[in-house]
Amino acid sequence: MVYETGSGPVEALRDITLSVADGEFVSLVGPSGCGKSTMLRVLAGLRPATSGSIIVDGQPVTRPISKVGMVFQAAVLLKWRTVLENVLLPAELAGLNPRRYRDRANDLLKLVGLEGFATKRPGELSGGMQQRVALCRALLLDPPLLLMDEPFGALDAMTRDDMNLELLRVWGEAGEGGRKTVLFVTHSIPEAVFLSDRVVVMSPRPGRIADVVTVDLPRPRTVESRATAEFGALSLRIYDLLTGRRADAPGRPLQALS
């Protein structure tokens, strides 16, 4: 992926080759500006790749696709609409009758613990509750692919932990045809390890895949999972890949992958 700018071309992604299985949870970690968000937008068809090909469910991606739900760092809710109306927005934008999706919207709100908040406005909700609404909105049309771009990055630590657990529960329960396929962008190594089946470690721009780490921790994941030696070893391995140093060697300078 190459962007054209006034000062010349900027190469955002180079030589990316990645396959993600149905129902798999894969996280992308890497330094700021390495192209993680760009990769999600290319996968969704929101930006055309400069070269190469994108295949989703056996079909080449040449334009925005309908089989995807997206969740961003900010909830981006319409403040003049109720919670239920915000969740129903994808149906309206798709030219569908929102009334047909009211039951599903209410079921999703119940699933994420927001039963009874359907008539509230976004300004009446906490940040974590707003992100739950954004997740429901992304799931309304039951897309098989869910792309999440640092959705919990702006939340406090305890709320973020709660949302991690909530996401894993919804990932396992919300889909009618089984688990969603999830690509999740984060700067948090522990979050990536806790959520994922695999963690894709990216290099600085132009973004390339430095390594792919398999997370073989048992599911369902719990808070106690974070306290295991296996969790710590996986986190340290990813840290090593990102920084080029060991966490137990504080005297050495950080070295970015090149």
From TrEMBL:
Return the Pfam families for the record. Answer: ABC_tran
- MF terms per GO, please? ATP binding; ATP hydrolysis activity
Q: Which residues form the ABC transporter domain?
A: 2-229
List keywords of the entry alphabetically: ATP-binding, Nucleotide-binding, Transport
Q: Which SMART domains match?
A: AAA
Q: Does the keyword Transport apply?
A: yes
Which family does the record assign?
Belongs to the ABC transporter superfamily.
Q: Which organism is it from?
A: Aquibium oceanicum
Q: What protein does this entry describe?
A: ABC transporter
Q: Which InterPro entries match?
A: AAA+_ATPase, ABC_transporter-like_ATP-bd, ABC_transporter-like_CS, ABC_transporter_ATP-bind, P-loop_NTPase
